[in-house]
Amino acid sequence: MQQPGAAMRTALALLWLWFWLCCYAEQEQTRKGLGQECGWAELGRCDTNLTCVPETLTDPGESPGPSVCKPVPQSSGCVPCAEVQCPKAKRQCPGSHVTEPCGCCQHCARQRGQVCGGPHWERGYCDRGLTCTRFLGHVPATPPETGVCKALPGYRVDHWADPHCPWQWGCNIRAGSCDCYGTQTCQLAFAYHSMRDCMKTMEEDWRYAGMTEEELEAEQWECMTNGCEIQGDKCVCMKKSCFSKPPLLSEDDCENQLEQTRCANVSCPIVPVPSCPPDSFLTAPYTPLHQCCPLLPALCTCAFERCPAEPTDCPPGHRAHIVTRGDGHPGTCCHRYLCRRGEEESATQKREEEED
User: Fold this and answer.
1) Residue 75 DSSP code
2) Mind listing the domains of the chain with CATH numbers?
3) What are the start-end ranges of the E strands in the chain?
4) Helix (H, G, I), strand (E, B) or coil at 231
5) Contact 125/100 with Cβ under 8 angstroms?
6) What's the rounded mean pLDDT across residues 117-145?
7) CA gyration radius for the chain?
8) Are 227 and 207 in contact (CB under 8 A)?
9) Is the pLDDT of residue 27 over 60?
């Protein structure tokens, strides 16, 4: 009979991840002041507009050193967490689970074409490989500006070491042991918030791995499932038998059905959908939390990945010149190049010199 160690560890890790998303974020946490020690759940999180920063950096696999609460950089655009209404964290996301750079709310990372940024980053943080960019132009959006998630050439962010994000501390199970460390990221990087929780899972794994077939068969397992049902104007979540009727909904499906019911009789203004030039694409409309109608309609924004690269196959004695500079606006997103003989300046370069 196959030992259930790996499967049990995976199941418990996923269970803890669900608990951390759905429950831990809602618990009242100890908030530490400027200069106080922070980091682990037992030590507490930093107060509004403070972030937990290690006094000495550690590598993955090393135990994190002491950390203290320090001011959040002013450029982050953060406001007090008490003024922010966090959406309920979803269990399933099309991309990553993240926290916004101010460290107050967990949410699904925004995908290509979705809005981001805003005051306190309340409109979301982009997934890996994407940058929160201004709708027009080719520079990142800086909160409280609202931007759109898309690829931005020449601007790369290491999402596992992002200076805009708070420090996180936690543990993952790797090679049969608890690997605990800290990292500056908005990604949901850890399955376990503390060494204690990680070791508890490891102990359960070891207990089942050491059982004989007879002991495993003697274990009485009752098939139970977690889920939710709509009761009045809210979703109520509970644990029931796997065979109960009707079957429970996932928390995400329950919230979606509740939102659809609430907005069923709401009429939203009809906004024409623009037709975008070939060098751009249509963004997703943005509807704020608990509202039925979009606040921002769908807009055209540049798809920089469609821009042609500078020619490298000019004839001998010729080189590529920019004849029209792209300005990051739909229709004129990209540079236009021509191969010209010798060192002759392009028309755009000449015009810029004349303007100077």
Assistant:
1) G
2) 5-173 (4.10.40.20), 225-261 (no CATH), 307-355 (no CATH)
3) 31-32, 37-38, 45-46, 50-54, 67-71, 97-99, 106-108, 115-117, 131-133, 146-150, 167-174, 177-184, 224-231, 234-241, 280-282, 300-302, 318-324, 336-341
4) strand
5) yes
6) 90
7) 26
8) no
9) no
Question: Coil, strand or helix: which one is 338?
Answer: strand
Question: How would you label 10-24 residue by residue, b for 16+ Cβ within 10 Å and e otherwise?
Answer: eebbeebbeebbbee
3-state secondary structure of 292: coil
> What is the DSSP secondary-structure string of 185-227?
-SB---SBSSHHHHHHHHHHHHHHHT--HHHHHHS----EEEE
Region 317-339: mean pLDDT is 91
**183, amino acid identity:** T
CA 28 to chain centre: 23
Question: What are the phi and psi torsion angles at 314 (to 5°)?
Answer: -65, 150
Q: Scan for tokens 């950390």, then name that residue.
A: 67
User: Using omega within 30 degrees of 0 as the cis cutoff, is the peptide bond preceding 246 cis?
Assistant: yes
Which DSSP letter does residue 34 get?
T
pLDDT band at residue 290 under the 50/70/90 scheme: confident
